């Protein structure tokens, strides 16, 4: 059993180097944007609009990567898809390092975003298909754990490294992933779907050890493998469309609960609370994310997926409601202001108010990040890797990843407009309402997949 787990963990580790690269790509913009806004070179210096695009264009690349990943994962397999996505990662950072103008920076960010989109789809699928039910939740949660570790790594490295050297560092995890994945097996489910039974047995021998009943597990997988292709007409089948609707809704709620908006506020909130070093503040936030995502990974196979989504949703609803209260008190006259950036500068705050209740904003921020990391960060990615039938896994996962990244882009880019239309407090109370809706949706529609094989989960959705 120890040998079995060691090799399984090794395969999972090789795969989650992809999400680590993904985290570095997401975190790269935070320490780099302030540096590029002050750089002497006018061709590389970013203004406010360019800085916004530099931060958010990675999500557009990721949306395209979700579509491409959905095709690759079914056509060339899980392992080769992961190895291929290291190419746009490395090439993207090469473009950034050699950038002579802003458009080269954008192009490099799009390429790293494309690789991130493929990674965010393929890695959960790979891990769910190589794992056995007792550890699938823990290993699946490591995807999000490595993403937030990568973000934190970019924040910490950005304190000392200049933007070009930081790009060089960010390219390392994808190179190591390419090396490690070349020694790892393809997933048994994909191999059996390709009628490669001997290779599937060899993969199971590597993953489960020599003493497990490989033939029995093969028969279990074969019973649920549909060799014929997927026709669009089959999406009328509840076993196909029900998990797809659940997966898309999970990704929608993950973004509209406001995580990107809250992270966008983080630097200003810490400054208002007398945290003068905003880079260190980002490190604090990143550390909270890593700690609570690790807690989720350790307990998810004991508590179950739904319990964590409930707890996470309630914590996020309360903390965003407190955010709304904070801005209602600090910016009481916001509706009468003609300054569209008043929410950010806090110039119209009541005298002394922001300093006396700044603790409320900091506590709300910490609670929200902890709550998200505990449930709505890792669990949706885990659940979508578990609920789709094999023949629909590529296209369904692609639809979910596309939804996630398009919503991330819209929330990031349109946040200013939300503030202008609803005011700061109204916007955060809207996020709080979405958090409440996410809990209700979980209660009625999300199945509990703890301890079940992927074949049992497929059978659940085939029931009338």
TrEMBL record:
User: Catalysed reaction per UniProt?
Assistant: D-glucose(out) = D-glucose(in); alpha,alpha-trehalose(in) = alpha,alpha-trehalose(out); D-fructose(out) = D-fructose(in); L-dehydroascorbate(out) = L-dehydroascorbate(in)
Q: Report the Gene3D superfamilies cross-referenced here.
A: MFS general substrate transporter like domains
Compartments (UniProt record): Cell membrane
Signal sequence, renumbered to the chain: none
Name all Major facilitator superfamily (MFS) profile domain ranges. Answer: 11-450
Keywords (alphabetical) are: Cell membrane, Glycoprotein, Membrane, Transmembrane, Transmembrane helix, Transport
Which GO molecular-function terms appear in the entry? dehydroascorbic acid transmembrane transporter activity
InterPro entries per the UniProt record, alphabetical: MFS_dom (IPR020846), MFS_sugar_transport-like (IPR005828), MFS_trans_sf (IPR036259), MFS_Trehalose_Transporter (IPR050549), Sugar/inositol_transpt (IPR003663), Sugar_transporter_CS (IPR005829)
What is the purpose of this protein?
Insulin-regulated facilitative hexose transporter that mediates the transport of glucose and fructose. Facilitates hepatic influx of dietary trehalose, which in turn inhibits glucose and fructose influx triggering a starvation signal and hepatic autophagy through activation of AMPK and ULK1. Also able to mediate the transport of dehydroascorbate.
Kindly provide the name given to this protein in its UniProt entry. Answer: Solute carrier family 2, facilitated glucose transporter member 8
Originating organism: Thinocorus orbignyianus
Q: Its gene?
A: Slc2a8
């Amino acid at each position: 059993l120890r040998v079995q787990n060691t090799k399984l963990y090794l395969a999972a580790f090789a795969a989650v180097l992809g999400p680590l690269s993904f985290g570095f790509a997401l975190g790269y913009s935070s320490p780099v944007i302030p540096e590029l806004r002050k750089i002497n070179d006018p061709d590389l210096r970013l203004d406010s609009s360019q800085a916004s695009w530099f931060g958010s264009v990675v999500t557009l690349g990721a949306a395209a990567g979700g579509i491409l990943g959905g095709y690759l994962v079914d056509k060339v397999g899980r392992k080769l898809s992961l190895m291929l996505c290291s190419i746009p990662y490395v090439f993207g950072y090469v473009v950034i390092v050699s950038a002579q103008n802003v458009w080269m920076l954008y192009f490099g960010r799009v390429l790293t975003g494309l690789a991130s989109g493929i990674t965010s789809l393929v890695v959960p699928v790979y891990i769910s298909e190589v794992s056995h039910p007792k550890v699938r939740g823990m290993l699946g949660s490591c995807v999000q754990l490595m993403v937030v570790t990568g973000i934190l790594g970019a924040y910490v490295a950005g304190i000392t490294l200049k933007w070009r050297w930081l790009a060089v560092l960010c390219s390392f995890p994808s190179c190591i992933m390419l090396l490690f994945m070349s020694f790892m097996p393809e997933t048994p489910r994909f191999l059996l779907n390709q009628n490669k039974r001997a290779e599937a047995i060899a993969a199971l021998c590597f993953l489960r050890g020599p003493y497990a009943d490989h033939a029995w597990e093969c028969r279990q997988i074969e019973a649920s493998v549909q060799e014929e292709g997927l026709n669009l007409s089959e999406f009328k089948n509840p076993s196909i469309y029900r998990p797809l609707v659940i997966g898309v809704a999970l990704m929608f709620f993950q973004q509209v609960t406001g995580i990107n908006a809250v992270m966008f506020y983080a630097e200003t909130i810490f400054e208002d609370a007398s945290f003068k070093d905003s880079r260190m503040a980002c490190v604090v936030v990143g550390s909270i994310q890593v700690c609570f995502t690790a807690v989720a990974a350790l307990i998810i196979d004991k508590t179950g997926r739904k319990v964590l989504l409930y707890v996470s949703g309630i914590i996020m609803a309360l903390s965003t409601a407190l955010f709304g209260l904070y801005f209602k008190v600090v910016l009481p006259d916001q509706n009468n202001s003609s300054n569209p950036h008043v929410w950010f500068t806090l110039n119209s705050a009541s005298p002394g108010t922001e300093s006396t209740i700044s603790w409320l904003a900091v506590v709300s921020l910490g609670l929200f990040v902890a709550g998200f990391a505990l449930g709505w960060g890792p669990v949706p990615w885990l659940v979508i890797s578990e609920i789709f039938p094999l023949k629909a896994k590529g296209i369904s996962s692609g639809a979910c990843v596309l939804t996630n990244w398009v919503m991330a882009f819209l929330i990031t880019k349109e946040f200013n407009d939300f503030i202008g239309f609803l005011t700061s407090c109204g916007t955060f109370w809207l996020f709080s309402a979405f958090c409440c809706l996410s809990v209700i949706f979980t209660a009625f529609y999300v199945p509990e997949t703890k301890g079940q094989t992927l074949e049992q989960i497929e059978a659940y959705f085939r029931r009338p």
